[in-house]
């Protein structure tokens, strides 16, 4: 039997990962519930003043999105490692680059994409200006994709550890900071009347850079973790 081509194999792997994620709804709901609870509790700490909430909304939404992504990073390769399919993935004739990219894309579809799509609702709760909401949505779409790719590197390096969640945070949190800075700055720029295009362009450049290099780092990290 002829082995499937690279694109066909990546498509099947993407579908498999999405189906497996949908069969574990708790893992999908945890980041979303965390996002919702923190946003709902934030006005209790600062007070219900609309102007105060609006001034903190860009940074708050981005920080919570970053932490929610960090919660789901540890599960990226964990189930495949435990059932042995990760070793088969490393032995497959298809490039590991595209395979890990499919895994990250599946994880982003069920976490980062959902967070970005729900962000306008939470932005309204925090009295964010309506003209800033489209920029928030676009920045989160770009930024959460970068966060998922960077988080995948930490997940690959710690997949063989029983408690790798804290180690992932220590490894990748510094690399999350530029995404947080430019993502929240894009939304803040709209509020202050400054064009947000430069910040969004930098986020897009980060995404291109991460797409090119992060799968290579993930592939190397997985080989190190499996061999160890």
UniProtKB/TrEMBL annotation:
Keyword list, A-Z: Cell inner membrane, Cell membrane, Cytochrome c-type biogenesis, Membrane, Transmembrane, Transmembrane helix, Transport
Listed transmembrane segments: 32-53, 98-123, 135-161, 168-194, 200-222
GO biological process: cytochrome c biosynthetic process; cytochrome complex assembly
Membrane topology designation: Multi-pass membrane protein
Annotated signal peptide: none
Recorded superkingdom: Bacteria
Alphabetized InterPro entries for the sequence: Cyt_c_biogenesis_CcmB (IPR003544), Cyt_c_CcmB_bac (IPR026031)
One example GO MF annotation: heme transmembrane transporter activity
Keyword Transmembrane: yes
GO cellular component, as recorded: plasma membrane
Subcellular location: Cell inner membrane
Family: Belongs to the CcmB/CycW/HelB family.
Classification via PANTHER family: CYTOCHROME C BIOGENESIS B-RELATED (PTHR30070:SF1), HEME EXPORTER PROTEIN B (PTHR30070)
Reported function: Required for the export of heme to the periplasm for the biogenesis of c-type cytochromes.
Name the record gives this protein: Heme exporter protein B
Gene: ccmB
């Amino acid at each position: 039997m002829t082995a499937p081509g690279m694109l066909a194999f990546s498509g099947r792997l993407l579908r498999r990962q999405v189906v497996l994620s949908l069969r574990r709804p708790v893992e999908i709901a945890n980041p979303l519930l965390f996002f919702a609870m923190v946003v709902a509790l934030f006005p209790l700490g600062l007070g219900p003043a609309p102007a105060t909430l609006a001034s903190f909304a860009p940074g708050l939404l981005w920080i919570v999105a970053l932490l929610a992504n960090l919660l789901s990073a540890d599960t990226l390769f964990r189930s495949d490692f435990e059932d042995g399919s990760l070793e088969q993935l490393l032995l497959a004739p298809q490039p590991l680059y595209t395979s890990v990219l499919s895994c990250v894309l599946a994880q982003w579809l069920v976490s980062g994409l959902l967070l970005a799509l729900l962000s306008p609702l939470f932005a309204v709760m925090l009295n964010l200006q309506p003209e800033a909401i489209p920029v928030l949505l676009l920045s989160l779409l770009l930024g959460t994709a970068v966060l998922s790719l960077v988080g995948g590197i930490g997940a690959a390096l710690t997949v063989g550890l029983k408690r790798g969640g804290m180690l992932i945070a220590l490894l990748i949190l510094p690399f999350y900071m530029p995404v947080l800075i430019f993502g929240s700055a894009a939304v803040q720029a709209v509020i202050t009347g400054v064009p947000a295009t430069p910040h969004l362009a930098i986020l897009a450049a980060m995404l291109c850079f991460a797409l090119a290099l992060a799968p290579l780092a993930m592939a190397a990290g997985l080989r190190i973790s499996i061999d160890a």
